[in-house]
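We emphasize that the prediction below concerns an isolated chain of 594 residues; any contacts that depend on oligomerization or on bound cofactors are therefore not represented. The input was used exactly as deposited, without trimming of termini.
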Amino acid sequence: MKSPRGLVLGATLMLTCAQAGAFLGFGGAGPTGLLWVPPESFAEWGEVAAALARHKKLSFTAALTPAMATPRARQVLAPFIDDKRLEIALRVPGDPILPLIHAHPAAPRPQDAVELLAEAREEHKSLWGTPPRGFAPGAGAMDPRLFPVLRSMDLAWVAVGSDPAGRGWSHYKGMLVVPCRAVRTLGREPTARDLEPARGGQQAAAPAVLVLDEADALVPEGAWLRLLAGPDAKRVAKTFQPVSRALDGVEGTQVKTAAPSWSDWTGEDGFWSRRPEQQLAWRLYGDAARAIAESGSAGAGPGAIAGATAALREAQANRFYRLNRIPAQGSQGQAAMEEADRQFRRHLVSVYKSLRQPAPDSVLASLLTPARPGRRAGASSDEVQARAGPNWLSFDNPVPRGGPSPLKPLWRIERFRADWDDDAVILTYRMGGLAASTAAPHGFDRLVLDTYIDLNQVVGAGSTRLLEGAATASVEPRDAWEVAVSATGWGYALHRANRRGEPVIDDRGPLQADRARGEMRVRIPRSKLKGNPARWGFVVTAGEPTQEGAVLRGLLGSPVLQRRLSSAAPDADGSSALPGKVLRLPALRAPHGL
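Result of the prediction step, given as a token string:
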């Protein structure tokens, strides 16, 4: 094995040859370290071992998460680790962008960095037999305020991006801060020329460290192995060495925890948080993190908080914040981004589910769908907007084209949502407004909300008649209901259809109402409402209570149905513009979920 001095001389000779018109070498005055960051799904360890066996001078550092250290990986890589040709650097699962997690403005979580790093280090030591010497943070993003944590783990170095402040080589109490240059080809296969480390200025004699980051798609997946199998393999193989060896003898100047952060490996300020999709993703993450922070005072138990925290940490993986930043490679790349978008929102939904809170509507829509020019929230639409997740359904009432809804705010259903878990089904309604009442226990009146549920999807099994004698409409026979929930300012009642299709009250209970937001919520125990709500059909109506029974005034349905209802509903004197007309109300069902 050549000494660092020998490598320097060899690099100088290669540069001289390049100036004479020969192959442009990987020149410079100092040794070159290589840090390879494969995807977390990488499993071709036999090919890595074969490349090391084939090229006797090949040596480098690989950044692996504990989960990547499979028995197969440890078995085939162990001889090269023992021979000090392969170094394994510490890596946190998901490669979270630690500075943005550590100091998020909505809900900072410095404890996560400490716990994630400590857990990863202990697993690394257990799997590989020795503690790690170096750490490769997600995308090389690092906040100096984390240096005390890293130094307490006895790390020799931490890889970061370039240093816009020009501080040069630095260390924190002996732990080297290693500025790296990431090879960035954005979909193109890297060549030997791409791996030439740029040197200059005061750092010309210092080691160079290159990063091949396949995990963040700065180079294509598998690029390193393909280079080692290509025509320049021998030249590439004898040029690099593990990062720790390249850093032998480097000291640098002391850096303080209050120092500015380095750039990440992309070299772009705000690469992870500049685009609208990314900003929205970080806002949604911050809202979920804040929900956890506030859950203790809201009465959540340790188990619920632990489950929510685990789901939030899954949502910290940096791939969820790379949205639309790396060019998609055809339809497969687009499909991968869409799947990452769905997974991200599933994790956030799981946070709220663990805390027994409904997920906000902002989590339900794709982050990848760009806003249409001139389109506003509440703009006109022809259909009910249906969305679904693993444990929720949401239906937004459309606004008819050409003008506002003909339905009055008191009976205009803007949104209906169902959430469920093992304990209860929660029905949430948002109205155009609620009429205040000091007499009703829940603070509103002049409204009866009825929800008809088709549990079994069997045509004609159940009832098609509405409650409270609303004779102007009925449920479609194919959507006949078995259970109906009626909610007023006095509470809710759960009805079941008997064999004759007549409603029989099975349960009563209170509800929650927020008059300022026009919302009410009904919580029904699972013992009273069993089954999978994702397969149910829902018909939701709003009525005005009268002495003769409720008069149908609003519904969850298309603008066509809303206009027909407005024409068919009787006025105060009992007359109707369409006497004798009976509306057939179809049930709404879940679309394809998250």
